[in-house]
Amino acid sequence: MMSRLVFVLSALALTACAEPRYTDPTPQIVNRSATANADCSIQFGTSRTCLSWTWEKLPTENETGSLIFKTYRPNTFDQTAVAQDLEGQVGLVLWMPSMGHGSTPARVQRLDTGTYRATNVHFVMPGDWEFRFQIKDGNNLTDEAVVSLSI
Fold this sequence. Notes:
By secondary structure, this protein is mainly β. The chain has helices at 2-16, 32-35, and strands at residues 50-57, 65-74, 81-83, 89-96, 101-102, 107-112, 115-121, 128-137, 140-150. It starts with a helix and ends with a strand. The model is unreliable at 29-35 (pLDDT under 50).
């Protein structure tokens, strides 16, 4: 009985040290640059600068919201995003095209190279809206990127 127990424990110990055959011994190399390409689906019309945005705080009926937006260009070598400041006065207009009016003016603050925060974002009614990210020189609109959304 004791010799059987020793045999079973020895066999178990030896198989536990074996290299598993279900694992691939070759290391997996991930091409990170291919997965980090700049998404340039939103662009300013004239400069072709790319833009992405995300809610920092969703607006409600009682409170204004805020969003962060980033501007960048694709790197010519590997198409990754390179942060790029906008030249001129940067603004955000909330516009309701079907009604021909906007909302309270949003305030834009530069946080870092190519990174901005828009606060005081408020929709006065539900419906189809546009974010009009604008660049101005004084009172003259020089460039614009438009994002449509439904509230």
